[in-house]
Amino acid sequence: MKMRHFLLTIFACLFATFAWAQQGTVTIHHSDSMEQLLYQNKKATTANTEEALVATGYRVQIYSSNASRKAKETAFEWKKNIEEAFTNHKAYVVYQAPFWKVRVGDFTHYAEAVLFSKELAKKYPKEAGEIIVVKEKQVKPLYFKNDTNTPTEPQAENTL
Asked: CB within 8 A of 43, min separation 6: which ones?
């Protein structure tokens, strides 16, 4: 009975401690350089005073594997082969644990990506069942001049 009384007393003390916990406001003081670091990825600015906004778009995935040793090597082989076969499209190797993936193109419209996926399926018929169109967050940068807010064509050194 004494043990039960002792445990109840400890429980009551702990409950009272948590019930009367202090509440308040925390203020964080930091320098301007810290704020620049926090928000540097929100808006990219190019050297010739243009602002870049990155558009959501589509890519065509042709390879995905989680074979531990061979997948990475095979992904980079696919990247090389795709960029040689389709010189006007860029291939990207993506690692999303545990998968290595190869995605191709920078398409702003779904229909463009589907048409290109059909080209890939003709070129690589054994992989046709693996070819899919995927949505990507950062596909094409759109550049705006600061003074006019009208879109301009991306320059070669600024494109992905």
From this structure: 51, 52, 53
Q: Is residue 160 included in any domain, yes or no?
A: no
Q: Return the HEC string of 92-155.
A: EEEEECCEEEEEEEEECCHHHHHHHHHHHHHHCHHHCCCCEEEEEEEEEEEEEECCCCCEECCC
The neighbour count for residue 16, using CB atoms within 10 Å, is: 9
Residue 111 domain flag: yes
Two tokens, residue 30: 């930091």
Q: Report the DSSP beta bridge partners of residue 52.
A: 44, 143
pLDDT at 64 > cutoff 80: yes
What letter represents residue 111's amino acid? A
Helix (H, G, I), strand (E, B) or coil at 58: strand
The pTM for the full model equals 0.57
Query: What value does the mean pLDDT of the chain take?
Result: 78
Q: How many CB atoms lie within 10 A of CB 91?
A: 23
Kindly tell me the number of DSSP H helices and DSSP E strands found in the chain.
Answer: 4, 6
145 falls within a domain: no
Expressed as residue numbers, the domain containing 71 is 56-136
Length of the chain: 160
